[in-house]
Design brief:
By secondary structure, the chain is mostly helical. The protein has 18 helices and 9 strands. β8 and β9 form a beta hairpin.
Length: 497
Amino acid sequence: MRPECKGITAICASLSPTGAPWRLATQCAGPGSSAIAGERTAGLRPKGTAGCRLDCPPARDPQPLEFARSRSAGTRGIANSRPLASLTVRFVLNLRSPADLVIACKTIDKLASLPQINRLEFNRQMPELHLSYRETLRLLGLLAAWDAQSAAEGPIVRHRWTNIGLWPVARSATVAGSTGIEGNSLTAAQVDQVLGGGSVQARSVDIREVLNYNSALDLANAAALRPDFEWSQELLRRLNATVMRGLEDDARGEYRRQAVTVGGVFAPPEYQRLPALMSQLVEWLRDGAGHPVIRAGLTHLNVVSIHPWLNGNGRTARIAGSLMLMRCGIGAPELLNVESEIRANINRYVGVLQTTHGATYNPEEHSATEWLEYFAEICVNRLEVRNRLTAAVPGDIGLLAMELEGSPCSAEWPIILLSARLAPIRTTSMAGLLGLSPGRVRAVLAAMAAQGWLEPAGERRGRRYGPGRRLMELPLRTPELMDRFRGHETAAPQDGH
């Protein structure tokens, strides 16, 4: 190896990555002048992450410079078919384990020892995204807690039968939480009425925000289940367009074309940089490497910080974060409902974001550590509540089945009754969840009401069914846990995210 390159292997060999890739930012201008950054960077694979300048002297019998891709180390293929006096080559080091590190060191050594090369120089060219963070003991502990609590997670499905009774209430709480962060005044109960087709006394803009956000969640969930799913700028634009449809600043998902400030305290990147930044973000999203909570947290953070649209950035960021969780194997993120916990303490949420992205967009100067600790804490808390809630469902279903034993009823009665105990239900929405015809569900609900299990309210067209006396007398565990799941119902309006 040339003397100039000896420092590279020494630096690389001194690292011991334990899961997340290292941010390789080696500067090699001469013997002994190398340095490397000390933070992890999540999933480094975008082009231009590390640059190698190869100066090749003329040769009498030049051979093509070829270098096969090493999948373990994440290096990109290097190939050139003609002799050049100077050749610039780029590749990526994506280090996730000590074994990858060894391969990367050997790769660098082999490249530096080629006879055509008399100098190997590394340049720091990192993606302009919030990807760097420290693996603090607190963060590692939270990630371990998440792993332990999510170990039994099943395959991603639209709805598991045990969760059908929970899902409508969970969706309403999620929609109320996320729109409430932006100042929407509707409570989870009012949102449940709106999503069920009912009417509430509220501003038309608040109702439109709720309907839009619900549609955007439907879009994200449908996308996550597609076998050909792929992150794209078009998908992110569609999410924002759905969130903002028919509202002020509805730009149909197009990126902003003017400078903005957020809450008077943060200046996002200039609008001219948005196409390049969003391209980098999508390439990182497609990488697929890293812990689910880290990836979801950084997805949320980067969309909010880049602030690509005039409005709806926070809502789009939260949906994108939920979509990332689904793509990482977490089914129905509504049953996590991180939005309600954020809404319950908005000042902390805004404060952590402001600390993380600073006064201006400059990711290299701001670590994502504090944000990831905050986000991971919320995810772990919500996962614990979700697990307790879903664990209570089979017992409550069993208790309802025992109470119904001997009655002329069908198999779906316990699930319907549990759902009605949590929130009023409507014929159309319940028919969609159960995959039954509205006529059949209408007949079932009428029979339940006749036996005192349900209490109808409203006219026939907008009729909803709440729990009747017989249902309220049963000692079910799920309703109490659902109250905790919903979180606080009110929050002060906030501007900017």
